[in-house]
Design brief:
This protein has 10 helices and 9 strands. The protein is an alpha/beta fold. Bound molecules: phosphoric acid mono(formamide)ester.
């Protein structure tokens, strides 16, 4: 069975059947362990085209692609010919001429990945674009919740923090809604979007209220690099109203804490919280490799080999 589209650009592109295919395949790869390798992408040229920095997404896609047998090349935007004025599209076309069949693309600009996909006959996977979407992060977050709770239907999940600048929030809202999760949001009003994304979604004004009414708190990083002016008063003020600390966690020890990373310790989260088993940050990272294996494996069925 194939997933419905020969690329992964938008979380919204994925229907419930696609999610089932991806999660079943992820289960299979997870069971196989860390050292097994597969032939799904044997010798297929795949480029990690990251036009913006990344640790988790880039390394996990690299591991995933290599475990599937791909011939992986890594594009380094800092030393590339972008600095000589080459366009994004010519960069992709140049790699296509060299035989690249799959592009895993991260870009700081909204919508560029979509534009590149519409100008390419090869497979494009969005590894995070601007403030719009990060579909494989959304997938690995859903998968982490499935493994922890068994089912997502009726789960109460609050996304806390800088929702305005967050592609992770957008991906999660799209994917979790489809799976029956009751989503709420919480954050300083300056960091809450006033768009279609949050229409009809209940807003908590502080994290204590959010904790009381939620099974899961999904923390988001305060993305200062995307702010044109300072939108929060101070780290201390933010932490007091929206940060997760040990006192808050101990009041509800069954609460599940998630964060896509990277974390600003002392702002979104206190470091002591990460040692608790219900803090799933490292589990999210671990499952990220298997989710990306599943996505690449399913998309490989669209390659003309
Ligand atoms: N969560 C996430 O996308 O992290 P990186 O920016 O390190 O890839």
């Amino acid at each position: 069975m194939k997933i419905s589209k020969p690329y992964l650009i938008r979380s919204n592109d994925l229907n419930i059947n696609d999610l089932k295919l991806i999660f079943d395949k992820t289960d299979m790869f997870l069971k196989s362990g860390n050292y097994s390798s597969f032939d799904d992408l044997k010798n297929v040229p795949l480029a990690l085209a990251f036009f913006e920095n990344s640790t988790r997404t880039k390394i996990s896609f690299e591991l995933a692609a290599k475990r599937l047998g791909a011939n992986v090349v890594s594009f380094d935007y800092v030393t590339s010919s972008l600095s000589k004025g080459e366009t994004n599209l010519d960069t992709i076309r140049t790699m296509e001429a060299m035989g690249i069949k799959i592009f895993v693309i991260r870009h700081k600009e909204d919508g560029i990945v979509e534009e590149l996909q519409s100008n390419s006959n090869n497979i494009i996977v969005n590894a995070g674009d601007g403030e719009i979407d990060h579909p494989t992060q959304g997938l690995l977050d859903s998968y982490t919740l499935h493994k922890h709770f068994g089912t997502l239907k009726g789960l109460n999940l609050c996304i806390v923090g800088d929702i305005l600048h967050s592609r992770v929030a957008r991906s999660n809202i799209s994917l979790l809604k489809k799976q029956g999760v009751n989503i709420t949001i919480c954050g300083p009003k300056e960091l809450l979007p006033k768009d279609k994304l949050t229409e009809g979604i209940n807003v908590y004004s502080n994290i204590d209220e959010a904790i009381e009414n939620s099974d899961v708190i999904m923390l988001l990083r305060v993305q200062r690099e995307r702010m044109k002016s300072e939108l929060i008063k101070s780290n201390e003020d933010y932490h007091a109203k929206f940060g997760m600390n040990i006192k808050r966690f101990e009041r509800k020890p069954e609460l599940v804490i998630m964060h896509p990373g990277p974390v600003n310790y002392g702002v979104e989260l206190d470091m002591e919280v990460i040692k608790y088993p219900n803090c799933l940050i490292q589990t999210q990272v671990k499952y990220g490799v298997y989710i990306r294996m599943a996505v690449l494996s399913l998309l490989s069925e669209y390659i003309n080999k």
